[in-house]
Amino acid sequence: MNLLDPGSAVIIAGLAAEPDVAMISLRHRHGRADAAAELTALRRAYAGPLLVEPFSALDLPAIAEHADGVLVGAAWMQDFQLLRAVARTGRPVVIQRAPAATLEEWLSAAEYCVAEGNHEVVLCETGTRTHLPHHTLDLALVREAGRRRPVFVDVSSDPALATAALSAGARGLLLGEDAEAGRVAEARARAALLAPLLADGEPATVAGARAEIDRVDAALATLLERRAELAGLVQRLKPVGGFAGRDLDRERQIVEAMAARAPGLGADRIARIMTAVIEAGLQASEERDLSPA
Ligand SMILES: C=C(O[C@@H]1C=C(C(=O)O)C=C[C@H]1O)C(=O)O
User: Fold this and answer.
1) CA of 262 to the centre of ligand 1 (A)
2) Does the CA dihedral 212-18-44-28 come out positive or negative?
3) Which one of 2, 67, 138, 265 is CB 3.0 to 4.6 Å from 269, fit for a cystine?
4) ipTM passes above 0.90
């Protein structure tokens, strides 16, 4: 199983938040956890992709057996013995950048894994110590490193930075083992909205074009849900809401403005699409207002 998705950003967080890749750190119990027992129990509940941070090299056999990737924490980035042992598990390796490490130091940590024959190395930016209370992500570095290797970005301090991280080329977002579901959902929504904008080049195959359509549709669904929420808000703020409060002048203005942005579809087709969208939003809002709280 691969930690990278070729088309979209991978969301990595604790199992409870239902991420694409679940993460667990064996460091939390200061090495008192039995890695084999812990991972066996986890595997009974979860069969999806799993990224594990060891407490020490002693945990690696259990990780090799149960996990899909090994996370090397920032504090261990230059522990070359550990890096080599991790690489020898044959599992993809994710290497967090130490807070003061340069691009060259980070890339050379990856080279220790490659030297062991493991080419599946992903870098993970976790930030530099600055004047801010939490680490500051270095997005220029992410962009530069991303030209050489896939890069994840740890946005656990602020999921709103997901947009910036993905724009800088991040292939995945780490939200932390204890991330709340709402923060994971925020990062996921931002990733979905951005994905069609980050696509590069014209797909050459049916499968490629369909994958691209899936990304556009994911963004559309996210926007349609948001639009329906806003239309529902207007219904509650207007003197008369729902279908009874329909404003056809406003709807015509919306269609006109959208047709200017979608000349290929043209005003008539946009009008049909938007009528369906508007009516669906009004219907959802009327149903919600009728249903008991
Ligand atoms: C949201 C409103 O209510 C209705 C729904 C609209 C929409 O979904 O955009 C537009 C006009 C109205 O028919 C509004 O008046 O702005």
Assistant:
1) 20
2) positive
3) 265
4) yes
**Partners of residue 72 on adjacent β-strands:** 95
- Enter the pTM of the model: 0.86
CA of 287 to the centre of ligand 1 (A): 16
- Structure tokens given for 142: 């992410």
Contact 151, 123 (CB under 8 A): yes
CA-nearest residue, atom 7 of ligand 1: 278
Is residue 286 lining ligand 1, measured as CB closer than 6 Å? no
Atom index in ligand 1 nearest the CA of residue 234 equals: 1
Which residue owns the Cα nearest ligand 1 atom 4?
246
Rounded (5°) CA angle 56-29-10 = 75
Per-position DSSP letters for 243-264, written without gaps between them: GGG--HHHHHHHHHHHHHH-TT
Q: Which domains does the chain have, with CATH numbers?
A: 10-198 (3.20.20.70), 206-290 (1.20.59)
Q: What is the DSSP letter of 98?
A: P
Q: What is the pLDDT of residues 263-287, one digit of tens each?
A: 999 999 999 999 999 999 999 999 9
